[in-house]
Amino acid sequence: MGGAAKFKKKKRQADHALSKRLKPARFNHYVPGTRKSLARVYAQELSWWSDLDEAILGFVFRDVHGDDYGWQILLRDRAGRFRSVDLAHSLKSEDYATVGLRDAIARTLEKGNLAEQGSQGDEPNEPVDLLRVPGDVDPSKLHPYFKILLESPANAPARAVVREIGPWLAPSDPHFVQEFQFNQFDQRLWELYLWAALRELGFDITQLEAPDFMCRAPGIEFCVEATTVAPSTSGPLAAHPEPKNNEEMKEFLANYMPMKFGSVLTSKLSKKDAQGRRYWERDDTKDKPFVLAVADFHKRADHESSGSMTFTQSALWPYLYGHRVEWKMVDGHLNVSAIKNQEHKFGEKVIPSGFFDQPGAENVSAVLFSNAGTLSKFDRMGVIAGFAAQDHTYLRVGHRLNPDPNATMGIPFAEDVASPDYTEFWSDELQIFHNPNAKIPLDHAWLSGLTQFYFADGEQNSIIPDHHVWGSQTLILASTPPKS
Fold first, then answer.
1. Cβ-proximal residues to 260 (8 Å cutoff; 6+ apart), any chain
2. Cα atoms in the 13 Å half-sphere on the side-chain side of 123
3. Which DSSP string corresponds to 107-120?
4. Distance of CA 461 to the CA centre of its chain
5. Helices H / strands E in the chain, number of each
6. Whole-angstrom distance, CA of residue 108 vs CA of residue 466
7. Count of CB atoms situated within 10 Å of the CB of 16
8. What does the pLDDT look like over 339-357, one tens digit per residue?
9. Rounded to an integer, what distance in angstroms lies between the CA atom of residue 399 and that of residue 411?
C-alpha cells in the first residue's frame, strides 16, 4: 500500500471515530417533526448515525423506486429543530452510502459553527419553548402537573421529549405555552400527544386556529379537533359517584360516563366561529373528513384510586353507537351481542344514547380516543430513547390484547421500560371509532395499524393489532444510597 493510500486509510479511520450509530428510538426522539410524508413513500431508512455529541444527525436510506442508496445530514436550525443540510443519492450500495455519511459527518465537524451551517432562513422569530417560564412568574401559580414535569428528577425523560417537540409547534397560538404551564395542562398535553402520534403515523401536520390539526399524506387529508373530559363543577354531574363494587362501577360506566363524554362531544357539534361556521364548514376543512379526538381527564389519580382515564374507556363505545355489549360463555365459546340503548340517566338528568345518531353528528367522520396522553407516556418514550433519570427504574404494568377469540380479559404484563427488548410507539393505545352515518367517512386504511371500531348490521366490529395496549400504569422507582 502506497503512502497516499495509507494516509487516506488513517484519515478515514480518524474521521469515522467521530461518529457513532444510534438506535432508532434515539434518532426518532430528535426528529419528531423532521420527516415528510412523501419521503416515507420513496425512502427506506436503513441506519441512523450522529457525531459523538449528537449535535449532527444522519441516516442511510434506500430509494425504493430506483433501488439505489443515499445519505442525509441533519443539523439544528435557529429554532432548535433538526433539518436537512446535506445529502447524497444514487449510490451503489448501503455500505458505500454508510461510508459516505460518516465521511460527511466528519467534514461537517471540520467546518465548525454548526449553528450557522444549520440555519435555514425561514425559522420563526420566537420558537416555542414549552419549559421556559418567564422570570416574573409566581411559581405557586404554575399548574401542579407542570411543576412536576419541570422539577421532578424522575420526569427527566418527559422533559427531554417535550423539549424536542416544542420547537416544531406553530408559534401562531400565543396562549398554548401559557395554558400548558398554568391552567390547561391536561388539555395541552393531550394535544402534544396527538401531534406526536399523528406525526409518527406518517402525516404532515398543519396547526390551524380551529380545528387543531390538518393531517396530510399522499392521497390523504383529514382534520382533527382535540377535546378533553374535565371535572364538572356545577349541575347534576358535579355529584361525582365513587363506585365501591362491581355493580356500582357498571352503573357508573353505563350512565354517568356517557354523559361526561357526551357533554364535550356534543358541544363541538354546535360550536361556531365569528363567521358562524362550524369546524367542518371552514375554508381549510370543508369537504374533508373531520375527526374529534377525546381523552378523559375528569378525575385525577390519588393515593386511593387510579385516574379515571384508566377505566372509563368502556363507556365510550356504548355511547357513540347507542348499543351496549353483552357477553356470555356458551359451551366454552364467547358469545357477544349488541343491545340497543335508548338513553343514559343519572339523577334527574337524561340524555339520548348514540352520539353518531344525533343531529349534526353526521359531519363527524370518526372519534379518536386514547387513555395514554399522560406524563407517563412522555416519560416512557424518553426512557426508550435513552434519557432515563439516573438511579431511577421505570416499570410498566397493564394489559395487552389477548388474541384468543374466547378471551374476556387482556394479557397482563409487567416490563422494564429501559430493557433493550422493550418497544413502544406513540400510537400504540390509540383507538378510532368510525361513524356509520358519516357524510364523509374516514378511510379505514388511512389509520391502519391502529385499533379501529365500526358498527354495521346491528353488530360491533373491530380491527385490533396484536400490539394494542388496553391500559397500563407506570411505576417509577428511585434508588437511594444506603445510610452510613
1. 229, 232, 237, 296, 298, 312
2. 19
3. HHHHH--HHHHH--
4. 24
5. 13, 20
6. 43
7. 15
8. 788 899 998 899 999 999 9
9. 5
3-16 vs 94-111: helix axis angle to the nearest 10? Answer: 80
Cβ atoms of 159 and 131 within 8 Å: the answer is: yes
One DSSP character per residue, 287-306 reads TS-EEEEEEE-SS---SSS-
List the grid coordinates of 104.
460527511
The answer to whether the pTM exceeds 0.85 is yes
pLDDT tens, position by position, 85-142: 999 999 999 999 999 999 999 999 999 999 999 999 999 988 899 999 988 899 999 9
- DSSP secondary structure code for residue 243 in this structure: -
- What is residue 404's predicted lDDT score, i.e. its pLDDT? 75
Helix axes 156-165, 185-200, angle to 10 degrees: 70
Distance CA 373, CA 17 (A): 40
Q: Report d(CA 319, CA 294) in Å as an integer.
A: 13
**Pairing status of strand 431-434 against strand 451-456:** parallel
Helix spans in 363-410 (H): 375-384
Torsion angle of the four alpha carbons 95, 97, 103, 104, in this order, in degrees rounded to the nearest 10? -160
